[in-house]
Write a structure and sequence with these properties.
Layout lengths: L4 H11 L10 E6 L18 H6 L1 E9 L3 E2 L6 E3 L3 E4 L6 E3 L6 E6 L5 E5 L1 E4 L6 E7 L2 E5 L2 E3 L6 E3 L5 E12 L6 E3 L4 E12 L6 E4 L9 E6 L2 E3 L4 E6 L7 E6 L2 E3 L3 E6 L3 E6 L2 E3 L4 E6 L3 E4 L4 E3 L8 E3 L4
Parallel strand pairs: 1-2, 2-5, 3-6, 4-7, 5-8, 6-9, 7-10, 8-11, 9-12, 10-13, 11-14, 12-14, 13-15, 14-16, 15-17, 16-18, 16-19, 17-20, 18-21, 19-22, 20-23, 21-24, 22-25, 23-26, 24-27, 25-28, 27-29
Length: about 325
Amino acid sequence: MKFTAAFAVGLALAGVLSAAPALALNQHSFVSSQGNDANACTLAAPCRHLQAALAATIAGGEIAVLDTAGYNGGATVTITQAVSIVNPGGFEAAIAPPSGGVGIIINAGANDAVSLRGLSIDGAGVGQVGILFNTGASLTVENCIVRHMTDTGIIFQSTTATSAFTVSNSLVADNGDGGIFVGPTGSATAVFNRVEANNNLGNGIQLYGFSSAGTNSINATVSESVAAGNGEGGFFSRTQSGNAPTSLMVFHSVSANNQFGVSTIGSGATIRLANSTVTGNTSQGWSAATGGVVASYGDNYIDGNAGNGGSLTAISKQ
């Protein structure tokens, strides 16, 4: 699965709201339900939408959400710089992706870190993708909800040579394909902590190495997380010889009631299980196909599945 960058950029250009006037840029900008995009996006004079606030904020600055509202005006929010978008909590900062489009697209610079906290991105069965990361140094998603997309909740398809992806305390659910897809063209690391990837029609959390050369690597860790009720795999790692190896460490997590609990396909695709539970999966608890490896440290709870596929590799604790 790959969401084309050209289409994403087109959507972004079509959806950009009018920018803030040519004033001095802010280190800290603000948006509010009572704001106006002609304002300077300061605390005293907040903007109404995130796109206007992005235009009024210096690279590396922060945009704070002041109250409950929808903050994209029905258009894609396009991020092209290092920035933090923060909802401090206590209210809903909603993003409604346009029909067939994306909620937030990140086309940032190779050294730019982007952070999103406290956002609720709901596709309402018409938005295609919640968050699409094309370029940048890193993406951090914290305390967010991404759901009801026709395709995938979050796609991390970074074309930056080396990039990092972190998701914590977040729900990615009820999407028409996968929950979280990691398929960069370079090397990438990812960490998923206290993440729920539930009831997606595809895989809950997927690593995909086919877009990246074999000299690169895709390494991810899942901890204290749940993948449940997904139509394909709960945790899935896939690549092939000649492409980037994909390694997923699953610690103290649960994969339950999916089609496959943990699944690997292809030489170089690995999932390691430690102190985790795999149960109630309707086809196989684990599946290791065409050279893929599912390895266990011997302290897991794998039971109550319809069956298992391939061999489970035993590995020792260090």
